[in-house]
Automatic annotation (TrEMBL):
Entry's Gene Ontology molecular function annotations: mRNA 3'-UTR AU-rich region binding; NADPH binding; quinone reductase (NADPH) activity
Species in which this protein is naturally found: Acer saccharum
Protein name: Probable quinone oxidoreductase
Pfam families, A to Z: ADH_N, ADH_zinc_N
GO cellular component labels: cytosol
Domain of life from the UniProt record: Eukaryota
Protein keywords: NADP, Oxidoreductase
PANTHER family per UniProt: QUINONE OXIDOREDUCTASE PIG3-RELATED, QUINONE OXIDOREDUCTASE-RELATED
Length: 303
């Protein structure tokens, strides 16, 4: 038996229960990893403690990480498909890796493949001080792009500047569409990375240049209203709704994505802010503190 956070009913943090669970033995093509069932959590780093029969390429003692499906990382151990885990370079602190693997891989596919940001591009990042937003700003700045970020407070504006934003818009104090128009001298931006959704979607479209790319990858403010195709026609805009799963459909894509993230962490291009750690058994408290805005940066649960 191992311990895991289990959810038996919908609700607030109080439904996260610390319980005994039966993990079982890994089967063909699977591993069992420490720190890793409905059990929430979709990213983790841990040590391989058992491997299924006939498996090659992974061995007991390896440090590995995973992000996205399958869900279930709020557990001391978890059975995972071996092709879903990536090796952790010895140069990367496991706690840092756990805090950045999902957000970093998301930033990688958004910046390097969904729309390939290059020197000279001007980009708009909403929620620039958020988990993914901060990494987008850091990485895009290193790629030579001009980065415009939106934030909700002056404190977050300071962080966004530190993360490489050349222009920061505090959207509660100024209209971000007007400011983007001013910053770009009316030309608009090459791409918008929008994780906010309903509240920013139409404005994001208005910020784009001719043949610009609208990348809607989140909806923290709610689902955007439907958009008729005709709304894209005046500027021949591109619109995409991507997900990490569709950009890591095979082993090579997964390894390339994770490898580039880890390389940029090692070189200092990407910086994680691990401001809080909690015992895994206190996941409910971590969620409660997160909801009440008592935390900032990344939270890591330690088994």
């Amino acid at each position: 038996m191992v311990k895991a956070i289990r959810v038996h009913e919908l609700g607030g943090p109080e439904v996260l229960k610390w319980e005994d669970v039966e993990i079982g033995e890994p089967g063909d093509g699977e591993i069992r990893a420490a720190t890793m069932p409905f059990t929430p959590g979709m990213e983790a780093v841990g040590e391989v403690i058992a491997v299924g029969p006939g498996l090659t390429g992974r061995k007991v003692g390896d440090l590995v990480g995973y992000a996205d499906n399958p869900m279930g990382s709020y557990a001391e151990e978890q059975i995972l498909p071996a092709n879903k885990v990536v090796p952790l370079p010895p140069s990367i602190d496991p706690i840092v890796a756990a805090s950045i693997i999902l957000k970093g891989m998301t930033a990688q596919f958004l910046l390097r493949r969904c729309f390939k940001v290059e020197p000279g591009h001007t980009i708009l990042v909403h929620a620039a001080a958020g988990g993914v937003g901060a990494l987008l700003c850091q990485w895009a700045n290193a790629l030579g792009a001009t980065v415009i970020g939106t934030v909700s407070t002056k404190e977050k504006a300071v962080q966004a500047k530190d993360d490489g934003c050349h222009h920061v818009i505090t959207y509660k104090e100024e209209d971000f569409v007007s400011r983007v128009n001013e910053i770009t001298s009316g030309k608009g931006v090459d791409v918008v990375y929008d994780s906010v959704g309903k509240d920013t979607f139409q404005g994001s479209l208005a910020c784009l240049k001719i043949r610009g790319y609208m990348v809607s990858f989140g909806q923290s403010s709610g689902t955007p209203d439907p958009v008729p195709l005709s709304a894209l026609a005046p500027k021949s805009l591109f619109l995409t709704r991507p997900s990490l799963m569709q950009y890591t459909t095979n082993r090579d894509e997964l390894l390339e994505t994770a490898g580039e993230v880890f390389a940029n962490v090692a070189s200092g291009v990407l910086r994680a802010r691990v401001n809080h750690t909690y015992p895994l058994s206190q996941a409910a408290q971590a969620h409660a503190d997160l909801e009440s805005r008592k935390t900032s940066g990344s939270i890591v649960l330690l088994p």
